[in-house]
Amino acid sequence: MNRQGIAPILIIIVVVIILGIGGYYFATKKAEAPIISQNQQSKETTPLATQLLSDEQTLAIVKETVIKDLRVSTKIECLTFLQDKDSKFITYMVTRKFNSNCLGDPTSSPAIPRLRVNLTDGKVFVESLDGEFRPINITNQVSPAANWKTYTNYKYGFSLQHPLELNFMPLSTFFVSLSDGVESDVPSSYNLPNSFQRSQKIYAGIISASTKLQCIPEPSSQINVTGIIFNKYQIKGDCAMDGCSIGNTYTTWRNSICYEFAWFAIQSSYAKYYDTHSSDSYNDPGYLAAQKAAGQTTENITSLAEKILSTFKFTK
């Protein structure tokens, strides 16, 4: 056989050897490769989950929300937070404690809707009347004017902002000295069930005063609302069989007009509702609880009224 016939045969042999070595190497490596299950693949390709909040962290968030947002008229240490937990949320039911430091009517419950905390991002949701949970924003709700409606009185040239629950309507009751203006009921969430207060109103308008002295008859404490000085007076109305008038008025004089903002309520007698048969009725737990609830309700409404007053502006 000549050299020209041998050369092609050698080339073919070399190619066969190379393919054989390559096939052996590929088969060996394939056999050595580990078999990865679908679960293992998902673990390797899925990023680590966000660290979930602890129960203690969610409870701290809820307490902060209760203090800042919901105007609870019971101090935080007198509330119990019962939780119901699932994989995504912790839902809290808030109830009252009753002991020597936490007085009150055991049959009443705080006006606090259920709260739900997202375990991933700490967002808080509040239960509405229809049973749905909606997000709650602490920053917006703490600010007196955030998300509030604006009432404008074009006749007398002033405006103010107020919570959505208030609804100012033309004057229909005459518990304060307004001659013209508007009034709104105070939302029930500001009133403790055993406060024995009723007819709670907020007013805004003018008084029939022809002089500044009639508008501001005597020195009083003052509130400065962006340069507008309001004089604050306590309502000390007549007491009748069904209770006494309480509240505050805030008056200012401008362009020969006496403007007044006010809140009002009727406070019933505690003793009338507690037949203690005791020689020391004023120390009876029921009487003391009602007294405390009335005081807290008064603080709640005063705070609400003065937050609304802080938004007062003249428009002309």
Your description of this structure?
This protein is α+β, with helices and mostly antiparallel strands and 316 residues long. The chain has three domains: 3-45; 55-141, no CATH class; 144-314, Jelly Rolls. Helices cover 28% and strands 30% of the residues. The protein is built from six helices and 16 strands. β3 (115-118) and β4 form a beta hairpin.
Summary tags:
316 residues, alpha+beta, Jelly Rolls, 3 domains
Briefly note the CATH topology name of the largest domain.
Jelly Rolls
What is the averaged pLDDT score?
Answer: 77
| Overall 3D form | elongated
Strand content: 25-35%
Query: Main beta sheet, described?
Result: 8 strands, antiparallel
Question: Tell me, what is the CATH class of the largest domain?
Answer: Mainly Beta
Number of helices: 6
- Coarse structural class: alpha+beta
Rounded Rg: 36 Å
The poorly predicted ranges are: 29-50, 138-143
Structural domain tally: 3
Q: What CATH architecture label of the largest domain applies?
A: Sandwich
The run of helices and strands is HHHEEEEEHEEEEEHEEEEEHE
Number of strands: 16
Topology:
Elements: H1 3-32, H2 38-45, H3 55-69, E1 79-85, E2 89-96, E3 115-118, E4 124-127, E5 133-135, H4 138-142, E6 149-153, E7 158-162, E8 169-170, E9 180-185, E10 197-207, H5 212-215, E11 221-225, E12 228-234, E13 239-240, E14 243-254, E15 257-267, H6 285-309, E16 313-314
In brief:
The chain contains six helices and 16 strands. The chain is of the alpha+beta class.
